[in-house]
Amino acid sequence: MIPKFTTSWQRITLALSLGAMSFGLMGIGCCDCFDGDVSTFRLPINTDSLSGRGFRAAELRSAYLLAYATPNLLGQPDTFRQPLPQATSIISGQYLDIRNDYVYLEGLARNPAGELVKSYRLRVPVANRSFELTDLDVKVGGGGGRCGCKHTKRKELTLDGQRVDAEKSPMPMLNR
């Protein structure tokens, strides 16, 4: 039984309430996992060049990444360079990604031979600096339930000899 409403205000309130409920029910079937970066390491890089510990923009433009299929930086590396500023598209996983004061490393990247990358050496030659990122250990699991979203089970690496659990502690700052 639908109650009778005597004022237009009550009719408007009912219409808005029913509309909001139906709009909310439409979203129940949607899944949006946001799982694009579950295996990506996000390393903060110091860009405060006035402090004496930060990199200048020109120094960061010289940076490149050596990727190794071994956990100990041995063997023939693959080189990942930064895209040119005029590049309109970037092939995922084939370039060094430095943006917004972070270096982004894919923890489950593969080299051209199809081997899983297990270590990286980040070189900033203009600043005469390099960082060793070894023993990458990334485990991603599929989620249960209706959506099946991926989630990170483990994401660890060794940065210049210091073991870092990226899930439990912040990544150390990369200083000049």
Placed side by side, the strands forming the largest sheet appear as 3-2-6-7-8-9
Task: Give the distance, in angstroms, between the N- and C-terminal Cα atoms.
Answer: 73 Å
What is the total domain count?
1
On the 0 to 100 scale, the average pLDDT is 78
Number of helices, where a helix is a run of at least 4 consecutive DSSP H or I residues: 2
Name the shape in a single word.
Answer: extended
What is the count of β-strands?
A: 9
Secondary-structure element order, as H and E?
Answer: HEHEEEEEEEE
Question: How would you sum up this structure, described in words?
Answer:
The chain is α+β, with helices and mostly antiparallel strands and 176 residues long. It has one domain (40-165). It has helices at 8-26, 57-61, and strands spanning 40-44, 64-68, 78-81, 97-99, 102-106, 119-124, 129-142, 150-159, 162-165. The strands form two sheets. Strands 3-2-6-7-8-9 form a six-stranded antiparallel beta sheet. It is extended, with a radius of gyration of 24 Å. The model has no long low-confidence stretch (mean pLDDT 78).
Features:
176 residues, six-stranded antiparallel sheet, extended
In short:
With 176 residues, the protein is an alpha+beta fold. It is 14% helix and 32% strand.
